[in-house]
Fold:
Amino acid sequence: MLDTFTLVVCTTIINAMMIVTLVALYRTSPSEKSILDWLGGICCFFVTNIAGLTLSANLLNHWLTPAVANTLFVAGNAMIFSGIYRYLHGQHKWPLVCSVAAITFLVHLFPFMHENIESRILVTYPLIIAICLSAVVILCRRQWQTRLFGLLPLTIVMGAFTAQLALRFFALVLENVGINVFSHSLIINTGTLGVMLYVMALAMSVAYLVNWVREQSLKKISRTDTLTGWLNRRDFTYRMPQLFSTTRHHRQPFACIVMDIDMFKQVNDTYGHTVGDEVLIHVSHQMRCVTRDCEYHYRLGGEEFVLLLPDCDEKQAMTVAERVRKAVESSPYLHEDNTLDCSISLGVAVITANGEGEWESLLKAADNAMYKAKASGRNTIRLDVLSRPRQHAANGSSYQASKNLSA
Structure:
């Protein structure tokens, strides 16, 4: 095994490389402020290793050197915790960092801390283990709640480092009572090696997390309509076949509701496209407010919107459609001194549990039902049920039209 001095030199070099890595990572992701906490933690480890080098080389044998080294090591672990907490909850824990650093330094004022490294480990390690274990707990809790796989590498790294610290601590406790589980040099050197591997793995897991979040953000942007926040046509063409296939595999009904804003061209021609966009945002918001239990909201283009309702029969689908129709009808859009009465026409198509057809035919049936609703006076709902044998009956009832969308 490498001697202690060589291990500390290697660890110092690795720390310096990881500092450069995190600086570069922060420059590419300046909005991710938690990187600053993680960077501060590794900087503390770097200075700790510099102090360790002076002790190993007998350059500065003074009680203050290990006091500063241990204080920064504890502060570094607290900074790592602060970064994790800030990432998960948006708030740093710098007061905690200062508190544990002050406590660690004050403890080193006692004479027994100057005797040997074992005494310092036995005193400081419980605090470090508590900090790291707290980080593992909040990571596991968030992992369980949200299934954010980007957090998994960081969770594993923190868990492994905490386990290593606990193992070394208990091995040293047993050694002090005369039970030698490991050799003394192994206990000390594995700590230095563990920090080196920890810093490398920590930097890599942080880089993975930041890049994973960026990738998820890009995916969300690529499948989201920027104006309304609804999913876009690209996501629809990707998800609809999968969703339809899964539902049909389980022999469940599937409903599709196509919605189109009435007289929308008149709004654009009268007030301009800026007001038209505001109306789109307003109407889409009203529709979403009454369909929060629906996961699949799509804007296919222009003023046309689609709701997908897996495991939903015609009665349930008509109930949803009527709820949406009433929400839009009862929420006019206010533009300066003008009130724009809003309404939508809805086409509902449902394929029954035993029905036959593909998702394209379901969408086409809903689209045709929507045009029938417009042709019958707008602000109405039409229903088409795809069953066995195939039926195209427009079974929906019409609702009395309110004011069309107009100034």
User: Anything to note?
Assistant: Residues 390-407 have pLDDT under 50 and may be disordered.
